[in-house]
Amino acid sequence: MSRHDGRKPDQLRPLTFRTDAPGWSAGKVIAQLGNTIVLCTCSIEAKVPEFLEGKGTGWLTAEYNMLPGSTMGRKARDRSGKVDGRSVEIQRLIGRSLRSVVDLSQLGERTLWIDCDVLQADGGTRVTAISGACLAVRQALQVTAAKFGYDPAQILPDSVAAVSVGLLEDECLLDLDYVEDKDADVDLNLVMTGSGKLIEVQAGGEEATFTPEQLQEMLILGQRGITQITEMQQRIKA
Predict the structure, then answer these.
(1) In sequence order, what DSSP letters do the residues of 51-120 get, joined into one string?
(2) At what angle do helices 125-148 and 212-235 cross, to 10 degrees?
(3) How many CB atoms lie within 10 A of CB 16?
(4) Of the four, 35, 142, 232, 236, which is 20 to 30 A from 82 by CA?
């Protein structure tokens, strides 16, 4: 099948990372994948949750939000402290993904706050957020290294990136946009380290099934995409 935007089945949408985003956070990156744009920031707080006090280790937590103008129809803001279930799931995924590559024992009793705000959504917001958040953490650690006296390379010895893969009309496609995602028979989100280790695989059929062979094909395609994203991350300077 031919993709509506002319891409090949194994082709990512254009991807950019801007490290000159506005704001006062120590780390701030605008990640853009096709028409999906996410502002990823990292703030460092000199305290940890109560359950970690006195243990000499740090913590990392994430929040995710879609701004009202990020979708075709206005998305209502979360009110009265209530966050919709999808946002909760995604921010937990972002937190797990980053904690898998951050050595919290090297951070001291500090908390890394990751905030991912979707400015414009066109599919793949969670994977774009993860890839951008990794760079925001790296930037924040480098900016504050002298102040806090730690080695950023020891705290963040690896990177993390994520990508979506889908099965549409029995064809495996890399990096689905919204038009493809809404019709896909199977959705898969893959999160991996820069060194090639799996962090998380989220796969499910939309009133459809898939074979072990198709799962393997999607994983291989996703790994190729993550390799490309990792290479781009490595070229970005804080």
Answers:
(1) GGTTSS--EEEEEEEE-GGGSSSPPPPP-TT---HHHHHHHHHHHHHHHTT--GGGS-S-EEEEEEEEEE
(2) 40
(3) 11
(4) 35
Dump pLDDT digits (tens) for 64-96.
Answer: 998 888 988 888 887 766 778 889 999 999 999
Rounded Cα–Cα distance for residues 33 and 55 (Å): 39
Burial of 18 (C-beta count, 10 Å sphere; 0-12/13-18/19+): middle
Sequence-separated (6 or more) residues with CB below 8 Å from residue 83? 91
Say which DSSP state 216 is in: H
The answer to whether residues 143 and 237 touch, using CB atoms and an 8 Å cutoff, is no
Q: Count of residues for the chain?
A: 238
Task: Output the CA angle 56-60-65, nearest 5 degrees.
Answer: 160
Residue showing tokens 């957020």:
129
pLDDT higher at 117 or 83:
117
Q: Which fold has domain 15-235?
A: Ribosomal Protein S5; domain 2 (3.30.230)
User: What is the distance between the alpha carbons of residues 126 and 128, in angstroms, rounded to a whole number?
Assistant: 5
pTM for the full predicted model: 0.95
